[in-house]
Specification:
The protein is 56% helix and 5% strand. Helix 1 crosses helix 2. It is mainly alpha-helical and 78 residues long. The protein has 3 helices and 2 strands.
């Protein structure tokens, strides 16, 4: 159980740190889009919503959303 808590706290810390690095102020953040496996955990989604007071958007199919984004980005590069 302790290992799971450590992982959850590390994921939350990493997520919040990256969000704050991308913005100078909490108020500047208007949308949060979550992708990847950590997005599947209710703990992370609920914590982000409480901290930023924004309900994060989570894709219906988290298993393919990263690949879909990579395809879109590759199409833009062509």
């Amino acid at each position: 159980m302790e290992i799971i808590l450590d992982c959850r706290e590390r994921d939350l810390f990493t997520t919040c740190s990256n969000l704050l690095k991308s913005s100078e102020n909490f108020k500047d953040i208007k949308y949060i889009i979550m992708v990847g496996n950590a997005s599947k955990t209710p703990f992370l989604k609920n914590s982000i919503e409480k901290i930023f007071n924004i309900k994060p958007w989570v894709h219906n199919n988290l298993d393919t959303v990263v690949a879909e984004g990579a395809c879109l980005y590759a199409a833009i590069l062509e």
